[in-house]
Design brief:
By secondary structure, this protein is an alpha/beta fold. Helices cover about 50% and strands about 20% of the residues. β8, α11 and β9 form a beta-alpha-beta unit.
């Protein structure tokens, strides 16, 4: 226990300096439309490029930041980097519709959050639709009508997307889903794993897709690791997919080449389909 506390304190003490040193960087994971195969968005995921410990995923350092003023600092850094990347992609002719940034309950309780998002978007010359805010289902499932609910409604009214992350794990009611102005449900990876061959998984995903359809919500399957899972989600009617089977989260320097390669693959596939149709 003492070692855990010491590690936590060390991470906390070094985080602000790490931000200043450029060690806290956004990595980006593409999301694809199952209808067109095109990139429909990116999710920004924090990585700490630690000089001694290597590249740390959020699970390694977020617990140390929770409940401190370092969490809003992380959110601001991810937001700034993400919007800057959208501008850079636009300039390169690689337009991606939206980038998703994860916000913690602490971030969502900031009464000035909608204004901060609007200022950031305006400062980068981006329309609100280019930003998506990800909120854990567990957060909205247990929250009454308070500052979090109002903030999410104001963010949606601003024109930003709202994704309900890890859907299926937080027991959110239908009333809650309608109340929180979500645009899209992200189906948790626990339901996606093995969906290509497990009937129980297929039934669960079908039930979620039916609920989303009735509520007018889009859907994204996360944690897709195989082409077979990707294909089954598309067959079942899931609108978007994301996961290691498509691409790992990557730094910006790797993102542009990946986007170009993906566009080239799509173009080749389209030509093949057209040739096959003409041959028939």
């Amino acid at each position: 226990l003492a070692r855990v506390r010491a590690d936590r304190d060390q991470l906390r003490a070094g985080f602000a300096a790490a931000v200043e040193a450029g060690q806290i960087r956004a990595h980006f994971q593409p999301q694809l439309s199952t209808d067109t195969g095109q990139v429909s968005g990116l999710e920004a995921l924090a990585r700490w490029h630690h000089p001694d410990r290597g590249c740390l995923a959020p699970a390694a350092f977020l617990p140390a930041l929770e409940g401190t003023d370092l969490m809003p600092r992380l959110a601001q850094e991810m937001l700034s980097q993400s919007l800057a990347v959208m501008v850079a992609l636009d300039r390169a002719g690689l337009r991606v519709p939206t980038v998703a940034v994860n916000l913690s309950p602490q971030d969502l309780r900031d009464p000035h959050l909608p204004e901060r998002l609007a200022w950031a978007l305006d400062g980068h010359g981006l329309a609100p639709a280019r930003l998506t805010v990800e909120v854990l289902e567990t957060v909205v499932a247990g929250v009454p009508d308070d500052i979090i609910a109002r903030n999410i409604a104001r963010i949606a009214a601003l024109g930003c997307g709202v994704d309900l992350d890890d859907f299926g794990t937080g027991n959110a009611s239908i009333t809650t889903l309608r109340h929180f102005s979500a645009r899209r449900l992200k189906i948790d990876r626990s339901f996606v794993r093995g969906v290509d061959h497990l009937r129980d998984q297929q039934r669960m995903v079908t039930a979620i897709l039916s609920l989303a359809d009735q509520l007018g919500l889009e859907t994204l399957g996360e944690g897709v690791e195989t082409q077979a899972e990707h294909a089954m989600l598309a067959q079942l009617g899931c609108g978007h997919v994301q996961g290691y089977g498509i691409a790992h989260p990557m730094p910006f320097d790797d993102l542009s080449p990946w986007l170009l390669q993906h566009a080239a693959r799509l173009a080749r596939a389209t030509r093949l389909v057209l040739r096959a149709g003409q041959g028939g």
